[in-house]
Amino acid sequence: MGKPLIFEILEKPATSCIITLCSAIWFYIQKKNIGYTNVGLSYETAIEGQYWRIFTSAFSHISVVHLVFNMSALWSLGVVEQLGHLGLGIGFYLRYTLVLILVSGLLVLWTYHLLIQKFKLDHFRRVTAVGYSCVVFGWMTILAVKQPSSSLNLFGVLSLPISFAPFESLIFTSIIVPQASFIGHLSGIIVGYSIAWGLIHGMNNYWTVSLFGWLVLLLALSLKRTETLDLSFIEIEPIADSSLPSFGFLSGNGRTLQMNVIPNRGAELV
Known about the structure:
Strand order of the largest sheet: 1-6
């Protein structure tokens, strides 16, 4: 018999918190009837300045099946938190989860830009990606490099050798789920290898907190400028260079969420 669930949760605190967060967001989205176009990541919304979608898209899911599949894989990959002796552990997991979300999202947008500008594939302007799979594929890849002898368990019935799991899963999901984002999943794999091979490194606590702080500021300004969230305590005024906003804090406590209604578009599950 395996360990009681409570002990596994205590051994994977960060993974458990992320799964809880994604589940809570899914329930909130369903309750409020928020569409994936309101939270997903697309090229069009990015060039409009809605940078916050890099994060909302990662933590949102289209259906309960989409949520369960991603969270099941993430739960299995939570073993990373227990591998401090390999240079991983909880701190590494939290720091590089932030990196995976940010860098894989930017890589997806850069790929869309390349396909649109160089290959004239305007379809990718409207493709909207949503889901946590970029991060799942990233951790799958990191674990494949750091501990190739381990396995990935899905739903407690399917076990894949972790050394082959990233590309097996990439091909499997692309065939079985036509809506699966090949670009998003591949981006997670690329960023995962970059972290595992040391091409992206140096994320200590100082740089993580600094990056997080700047991201919060950037996302708050993005929400304000796109009028997605009423942040009345922030005032943005143009200066000599209109591309560089100045901002200040005002009295007030506005926190009314105003979701932009965007026409229905093609969705990619990530």
